[in-house]
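Let's see one such:

===
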Amino acid sequence: QVQLVESGGGSVQSGGSLRLSCAASGFAYSSCYLGWFRQAPEKEREGVAHIDRDGRTNYAESVKGRFTISRDNAKNTLYLQMNSLKPEDAAMYYCVADPWSFYNGGYFYTSVAYWGQGTQVTVSS
C-alpha cells in the first residue's frame, strides 16, 4: 500500500534550520509530483513546496529563499531543507505525492492523492 513517512521535525529556535525527510513506498515514486504542505493550529492547510518529475521546483512566497525541496529517486525519498526558520513556520508538515501536478500559477491544490501522517515543527522566538 502507499506509504509516506515523514521524519526530521522537532523544536528549533528562530533563525535555526531543520531538514525534513519523507520515505515513500507502494507507488510509482519517480513518476509522481511531490511536495510539502503544512498546517498550523486553527489555520488552513497550505502548500509549501512542489517538485516535478524532472526536479523543477515551486515554492510558496512565504518560504522562497529559505526552504529547498529536493528528491532522490534512487532512494524514494523527498526532502525539505528549512533555513532561517521563523515562529510563523511552526506547523505540522505533510509530505504529499500525486501522479498529476498540484501546483499552478502560485496556487497549491489540496486535492492531492497521497499524504503522509505529518511531522511537527516548532519554532521558538
Observations:
- The longest strand covers residues 18-25.
